[in-house]
């Protein structure tokens, strides 16, 4: 009996702990890991030696894994396993058959993104587990350990005892070894991913969508999520007891949540682990765990800003449906094309351009046509007009959840888009969670979840259908982002949280919403939040809880390669000086840094333009005013920059009419200088650092 495995100082646990959930870190120090003889060690560390992962089996032969940082437990012994609808679960009676290790340190280039170059420096451990029952089923659990986190996945080889897998549930546990605070939104409710974030003790979380972000008692920041979600159901995490969680897969329309045949694997279950909030954002773990670009030459994928026939619809002044308030008329669209062209904005989104909106389309999109324009939208003439002005239309495919119907129209839909010079199409899936309409081969209808296996695969079918026509996708009401933009670089952005649209309606986003997003939703990847409503009013002139400077800062804080200037041309005409920043700010970056930040409180980003030597800074706060000092140590040495500052003006606050108060300032700066950013309640600051 081997009694002790050294993992730094502390991550040592007993089989009893493996059964009883989270380990008390103090107890960890005294208990030694006990496990059956004759099994090889299964320990791996990060390249810098700070993070350690260990796999073992408990008294019942249940595989458990644990993670420590600097010798202190982060994840206490947590079980692995799978439950099936038509076969015994695979959990007990497992034996570690073999353990193999590998390491790799390479770099790759993002065709577009927050960073041009991504380093992938990791250690890998493959643990082969074999069932001692008569079935003798086996699987590998593969760990990737980076300096900033850990990913693992199950890999099931093709095997006689398991010709297919009808997965009822994954038995993966995430037993957090310390208390702390969690930022999370609920999973499986009707409004999909569009909920405000809760900030609670870890032990008060319910069932949470991922990423869920936590600050542990010792200050370590972690986020649980997944990478490379392909042909599988999306995972949420459910609090069990104490600080322990278990995986919950999104249901399918049938009894198994996931169906697999032959050899199969799960997505990567990921832990970002960092000393501070900024470290979570700076991790490339999730992108590294995705497969490289599958589409070949993607020079046709074009990041860019856009305006759109949109905000007036969201506010209820115009309609998607035809009739007297129809927004997508030839004349209206021309106004937006003219505006975009004047300010060098390459895209104009048009919603409600097609037939299908007249009835009750939400949750029922079977009337939607994707190649048939409304009579008052002259698609051919507008495509020509836009082209002559150096602008492209952005298409819109709202499915209303009628997804089989949409799939049956893929080809004409994307051909129409390509024929009209559209490089990007925004898609939409407005239907309650669990109400996606899937038409089976026999004509019967099944109801699917937005993030179930069938929809996960649907989104990949969209990307492939669109790629044939060199079209890129911006999906709303999507499946969560797990880094698949690396594999499919035409997946530019998605919504997947409460965006600006909520500011048009009653029940607006509170001032802390965007700071919450920065270290939760934004850990997934680009979000089509659609910032830049400088008028700061929603429907019926209702006030939006932000300052103008904060709206500008969002272009730097909330990364997206397709970034909307969401307000109307009329409104932008009222704020020409502030609008300058929106016209200037790029959407594609050479480098990104988090200069400071606390989850849910404030954050400051600096990003360098890919096409110039200019840097941009964006800083935002919640309802609390703050003074933040930042050092410009990221600038190039020996160079002078003109800092064009857009800051909260005298008396600015999100809470009153003074939310429109903004001040402008220009000064010379160089590397090493410090700037003090004064942020108003609900405010922000945006700075262009123009290289001279
Ligand atoms: C909800 C989307 O988030 C919004 O952007 C879109 O305009 C409507 N659905 C209609 O498709
Ligand atoms: Ca939405």
TrEMBL record:
Any GO MF annotation of the entry: carbohydrate binding
Domain spans labelled Glycosyl-hydrolase 97 catalytic: 310-496
Segments passing through the bilayer: none
Glycosyl-hydrolase 97 N-terminal domain span: 45-292
Source organism, top-level taxon: Bacteria
Keywords in alphabetical order: Signal
Pfam family name, one: GH97_N
Coiled coil spans: none
Presence of keyword Signal: yes
Leader peptide range in chain numbering: 1-18
Domain Glycosyl-hydrolase 97 C-terminal oligomerisation span(s) in chain numbering: 588-690
PANTHER family: GLUCAN 1,4-ALPHA-GLUCOSIDASE SUSB, GLUCAN 1,4-ALPHA-GLUCOSIDASE SUSB-RELATED
Protein name: Alpha-glucosidase
Organism: Sphingomonas parapaucimobilis NBRC 15100
């Amino acid at each position: 009996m081997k009694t002790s495995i050294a993992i730094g100082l502390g991550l040592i646990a007993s089989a009893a702990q493996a059964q009883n959930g989270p380990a008390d870190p103090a107890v960890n120090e005294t208990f030694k890991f006990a496990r059956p003889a004759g099994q090889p060690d299964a320990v791996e560390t990060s390249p810098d030696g700070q993070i350690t992962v260990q796999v073992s089996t408990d008294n019942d032969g249940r595989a458990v894994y644990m993670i420590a940082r600097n010798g202190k437990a982060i994840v206490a012994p947590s079980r692995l396993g799978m439950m099936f609808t038509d076969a015994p679960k695979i959990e007990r009676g497992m034996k570690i058959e073999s353990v193999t290790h590998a390491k790799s340190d390479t770099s790759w280039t993002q065709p577009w993104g927050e960073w041009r170059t991504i380093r992938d420096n990791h250690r890998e451990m493959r643990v082969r587990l074999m069932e001692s029952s008569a079935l003798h089923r086996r699987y590998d659990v593969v760990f990737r350990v980076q300096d900033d986190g850990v990913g693992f996945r199950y890999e099931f080889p093709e095997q006689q005892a398991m010709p297919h897998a009808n997965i009822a549930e994954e038995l993966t546990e995430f037993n957090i070894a310390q208390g702390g605070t969690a930022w999370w939104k609920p999973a499986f409710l009707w409004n999909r991913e569009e909920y405000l974030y809760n900030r609670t003790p870890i032990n008060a979380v319910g069932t949470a969508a991922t990423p869920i972000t936590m600050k542990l008692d010792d200050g370590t920041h972690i986020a649980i999520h997944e990478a490379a979600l392909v042909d599988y159901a999306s995972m949420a995490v459910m609090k069990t007891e104490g600080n322990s969680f278990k995986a919950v897969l999104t249901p399918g329309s049938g009894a198994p949540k996931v169906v697999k045949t032959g050899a199969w694997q799960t997505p990567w279950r990921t832990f970002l682990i960092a000393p501070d909030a900024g470290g979570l954002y700076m991790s490339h773990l999730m992108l590294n765990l995705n497969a490289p670009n599958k589409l070949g030459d993607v020079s046709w994928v074009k990041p860019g800003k856009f305006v759109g026939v949109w905000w007036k619809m969201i506010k209820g002044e115009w309609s998607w449906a035809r009739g007297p308030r129809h927004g997508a008329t030839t004349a209206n669209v021309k106004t937006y094309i003219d505006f975009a062209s004047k300010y060098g904005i390459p895209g104009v989104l048009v919603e409600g351009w097609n037939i299908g909106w007249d009835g009750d389309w939400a949750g029922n999109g079977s009337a939607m046509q994707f190649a048939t324009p409304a009579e008052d939208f002259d698609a051919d003439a507008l495509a020509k007009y836009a082209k002559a002005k150096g602008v492209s239309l952005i298409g819109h495919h709202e499915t209303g959840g009628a997804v089989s119907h949409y799939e049956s129209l893929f080809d004409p839909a994307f051909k129409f888009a390509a024929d009209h010079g559209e490089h990007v199409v925004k898609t939409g899936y407005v239907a309650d969670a669990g109400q996606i309409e899937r038409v089976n081969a026999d004509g019967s209808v099944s109801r699917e979840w937005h993030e179930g296996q069938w929809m996960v695969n649907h989104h990949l079918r969209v990307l492939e259908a669109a790629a044939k026509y060199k079209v890129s996708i911006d999906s709303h009401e999507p499946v969560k982002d797990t880094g698949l933009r690396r594999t499919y670089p035409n997946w530019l952005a998605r919504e997947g949280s409460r965006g600006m649209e909520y500011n048009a309606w009653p029940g607006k986003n509170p001032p802390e919403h965007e700071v919450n997003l920065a270290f939760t939703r934004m850990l997934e990847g680009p979000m089509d939040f659609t910032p830049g409503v400088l008028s700061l009013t929603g429907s019926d002139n209702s006030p939006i809880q932000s300052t103008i400077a904060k709206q500008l800062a969002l272009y730097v804080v909330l990364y997206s390669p397709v970034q909307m200037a969401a307000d109307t041309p009329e409104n932008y005409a009222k704020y020409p000086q502030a609008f300058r920043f929106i016209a200037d700010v790029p959407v594609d970056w050479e480098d990104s840094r988090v200069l400071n930040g606390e989850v849910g409180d404030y954050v400051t980003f600096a990003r360098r333009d890919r096409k110039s030597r200019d840097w941009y800074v964006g800083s935002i706060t919640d309802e609390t005013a703050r003074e933040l000092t930042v050092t410009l140590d990221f600038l190039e040495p020996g160079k002078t920059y003109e800092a064009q500052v857009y800051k909260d003006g005298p008396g600015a606050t999100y809470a009153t009419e003074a939310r429109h108060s903004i001040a402008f300032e220009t000064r010379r700066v160089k590397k090493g200088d410090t700037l003090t950013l004064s942020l108003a309640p609900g405010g922000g600051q945006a700075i262009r650092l123009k290289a001279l």
